[in-house]
Design brief:
Cytochrome Bc1 Complex, Chain D, domain 2; globular; mainly alpha; 0% strand; 105 residues
């Protein structure tokens, strides 16, 4: 009985994580547009524009998150980010990272 409960709980958690990941990806796509990221990284995140843009499509989600967070927090390129309005929160960066990691390289 305990084993059946453990299996059912594991399946429920796996399904819940999958739904959350799908939600992050769709929200991340919207945020990528909202923050006008395509202006520097290209609409498909594969064709960077200018010297600060980089290819983000297909990168590891954690790498995208950490690099983006560091880029924003360093404030060394504030003029580049001015067109974006308020910088994205850590939660928003995570959602965009999840989305970008699903794109083909």
């Amino acid at each position: 009985m305990k084993q059946k409960l453990a299996i059912a709980a594991a399946l429920f958690c796996a399904q819940s994580l999958s739904v959350q990941a799908d939600s992050n990806v769709s929200e991340g796509k919207e945020l990528f547009s909202q923050f006008r990221c395509a202006e520097c990284h290209g609409a498909d995140a594969k064709k960077p524009v200018g010297k600060y843009g980089s290819v983000l499509a297909g990168m590891n989600t954690d790498d995208i998150f950490l690099k983006t967070k560091k880029f924003i927090e360093s404030k060394s390129h504030e003029q580049v980010l001015q067109g974006c309005g308020e910088p994205p929160s850590h939660v928003q960066i995570k959602k965009m990272s999840d989305y970008l990691s699903t794109l083909p390289k």
